[in-house]
Amino acid sequence: MKYFLYARKSTDDESHQIRSIDAQLSELRQFADKEGLFVVRELIEAQTAREPGRPVFNAMMDDIEAGLASGVIAWHPDRLARNSVDGGRIIYAIDTGNLHALKFPTFWFEDTPQGKFMLQISFGQSKYYVDNLSENVRRGIREKLRRHEFPGWAPVGYLNDPRRKTIVIDEVKAPLIRKIFKTFANGDIGVSGIHSLARRWGLTGHSGRPIALSRFVFLLSNPFYIGLFRYKGETHEGKHSPIISRELFDRVQVVLKKRKRGTYKPKKEFPFRNFLLCAHCGGAITAERQKGHHYYRCSKRKGPCTLGYVREEALAQYLRDSIARLSPPESLIDAMMHEAKREMHDGHSTISALQESHRTSLSKLDERLARLLDVYLDGSVSQEEYVSRKQDFLVEQSRLKDKIKHLEEGQGSPFEPMLDFLFVAKQARTEAESGDPGVLRDFHRRIGSNLRLCDPRDASLNGRILDSGEVGRPERM
């Protein structure tokens, strides 16, 4: 009688269950030699038997029905089938006489009513084991979600701690994640640009290889970094510590949304492009290179415009002049900073009241989340509405926790923005003397928005913008 030797493991991952296959083959070969069984082919499969559709198993059964062999050697019946379809096919092949013998080192079988009954019980036990294991896994996942623990592999910036079965911050990669979010939030570069920077900074995935560009949008939009996580389309509050603040995450989402709409990505070659608007028509200011110099002009996408060309050197000088003109005396800045610090010291009671207000709002939000779950379980709202409203509540909950944390760390004083502004004003003259156009651009972005470029030939400006001799159309444009 001819036999097929069949060995199976439950995964196609080369790094898992290698010993399982080797051990099965070694034992089955010894068993075949001992019993004097003639093996015509050894078959190896790396796929779970929970669902029907295994290609190697199906091909083996087709060959058995075609008469190429009439017996099978396997380690145990659960290697052949863990589902009712494949188990039924084996028993039917025995009933029709296509399959005469099944040989197992760990299980007795003979082609008798009692033998087939015991084989059916073994297949049933195998299916029960798989179903029970699956239910245990789902129960474990539900318990993890109730404990606010993410039931999966942590993203880059975090590590799974197998000893404590928790997720902890990766002290090596977490600073790089913060740096990536802060850099991208400025809006100066796109996803491909921040991906290139991340590779240069040495950020890699858990495998030690660089992260693919296609995964970077997911990384930048992953709420895991602010203490939340998504699982099967639903957002949950996480037990892990956040890496970045909610405010920084929101800024990054705004930049991502603009990029998806096709916002132009400025090139580093022209530092002032996509920075100013035309004061005449409201169009964007674009740039081009002519005879070794950079010229800025209105893009005229909103129609004809009379604004002329401005050389980059002239535009940079105007920006320096505007800083110098707007910068207050250093003595006045020092006096204002001293007064702001005194008010901060006297305002601790106000901060405490603000903290208490945020905690009250947070408590009410927790109650609303509990009521939302109750009405969802009662069937009063659909799953889609429940998921959407829950996500809104969790986002607001995250914002409140951020505010409370900042206040506890002394970062939430109403005078803090004033101190930041005064510090920037104090550095204004240093920034004005900088020869780097990028520094001038970034400084103006911090102190204003919707900056507009006017034509200095306009008499109403009293010569405050640019000298008229520095504006004009380059020769042979």
What is the C-alpha radius of gyration, as a whole number of Å? Answer: 35 Å
**Residue share in helices?**
40-55%
Shape annotation: elongated
Give the terminus-to-terminus CA distance. 90 Å
- Kindly estimate the percentage of residues that lie in beta strands according to DSSP: 5-15%
Number of helices: 16
How is the largest sheet built, in terms of strand order? 2-1-3-4
Structural category: alpha/beta
Mean pLDDT: 78
Number of strands: 13
SSE arrangement, N to C: EHEHEHHEHEEHHHEEHEEEEHHHHHHHE
Give the biggest sheet: 4 strands, parallel
Oligomer: single chain
Uncertain runs:
261-267, 461-477
Structure, explained:
There is one protein chain. With 477 residues, this protein is of the alpha/beta class. It is built from 16 helices and 13 strands. It has helices spanning 18-35, 55-65, 77-80, 84-96, 113-146, 174-185, 191-201, 216-220, 246-260, 312-326, 330-346, 348-377, 383-408, 416-426, 428-432, 437-447; strands at 2-9, 38-46, 71-73, 101-103, 158-161, 166-169, 228-231, 234-237, 277-278, 285-290, 293-298, 310-311, 452-453. The chain has a 4-stranded parallel β-sheet with strand order 2-1-3-4, with helices on both faces. Strand 10 and strand 11 (293-298) form a beta hairpin.
